[in-house]
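Workshop exercise sheet. Pairs work together: one partner reads the sequence aloud, the other fills in the structure field after running the prediction. Swap roles for the next sheet.
Pair: D.N. / O.F.
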Amino acid sequence: MPRSPKRPCRYPGCPNLCESGVYCKTHAPECSHDRFRGGGAARGYDSRWRKARARFLKAHPLCAECQRQGKLAPATVVDHILPHRGDERLFWDKSNWQPLCKRCHDRKTGGGL
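Structure field:
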């Protein structure tokens, strides 16, 4: 299979090309999104969350968005309907959770590149 063409690095003024991702090897470490917003554990996605997530997905195994469209797809992500933005009360409010497949979650959050 042919290789994908290299793309320009998104760092302002950088002339380098990227093999994968959006930043070259020089700028990837300093432009990592998690660097600015903290890693998963810093945002509350720790072992307590992983256990709660597993229980929620076991109880709600199908993607809510796909079901609304008349499709069936396994849920793999617990989405916060309203972004919690660090608010612990909203983070742990189960009425603010919905099961989604990765595709629907990426579409909702804009993460699907």
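Discussion prompt: The helical segments are 28-31, 33-37, 47-59, 64-68, 88-92, 102-109. What would you look at next?
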